[in-house]
Amino acid sequence: MFIRNAWYVAAWGDEIQDGQILARRICNDPLVLFRAGDGLVAALEDRCCHRAAPLRFGRVTEGCLQCGYHGLTFDRHGKCVRIPAQDLIPERACVRSYPTVERDALVWIWMGDANKADESTIPSFPYHNDEANWPHRHQVIHVKANNMLLVDNLMDLTHIGFVHGRTIGGNEEMHARAQTKVTRAESGLSFIRWMLDSEPPTTYRRLYDFEGTVDRWQEFEFVPPSNIIQWSGAMKSGRGATENRNQDNTFSFRIFHGLTPETESSCYYFWSGCNGYEPDDPAATEMLFSELARTFAEDKDIVEGQQERLTERGEQGLVAVASDAARLHMRRIEQRLLAEEAVNNQVRSTT
Amino acid sequence: MFIRNAWYVAAWGDEIQDGQILARRICNDPLVLFRAGDGLVAALEDRCCHRAAPLRFGRVTEGCLQCGYHGLTFDRHGKCVRIPAQDLIPERACVRSYPTVERDALVWIWMGDANKADESTIPSFPYHNDEANWPHRHQVIHVKANNMLLVDNLMDLTHIGFVHGRTIGGNEEMHARAQTKVTRAESGLSFIRWMLDSEPPTTYRRLYDFEGTVDRWQEFEFVPPSNIIQWSGAMKSGRGATENRNQDNTFSFRIFHGLTPETESSCYYFWSGCNGYEPDDPAATEMLFSELARTFAEDKDIVEGQQERLTERGEQGLVAVASDAARLHMRRIEQRLLAEEAVNNQVRSTT
Amino acid sequence: MFIRNAWYVAAWGDEIQDGQILARRICNDPLVLFRAGDGLVAALEDRCCHRAAPLRFGRVTEGCLQCGYHGLTFDRHGKCVRIPAQDLIPERACVRSYPTVERDALVWIWMGDANKADESTIPSFPYHNDEANWPHRHQVIHVKANNMLLVDNLMDLTHIGFVHGRTIGGNEEMHARAQTKVTRAESGLSFIRWMLDSEPPTTYRRLYDFEGTVDRWQEFEFVPPSNIIQWSGAMKSGRGATENRNQDNTFSFRIFHGLTPETESSCYYFWSGCNGYEPDDPAATEMLFSELARTFAEDKDIVEGQQERLTERGEQGLVAVASDAARLHMRRIEQRLLAEEAVNNQVRSTT
Question: What is each CA distance from B158 to A244, B11, B197, in whole angstroms?
Answer without folding.
Answer: 68, 30, 18
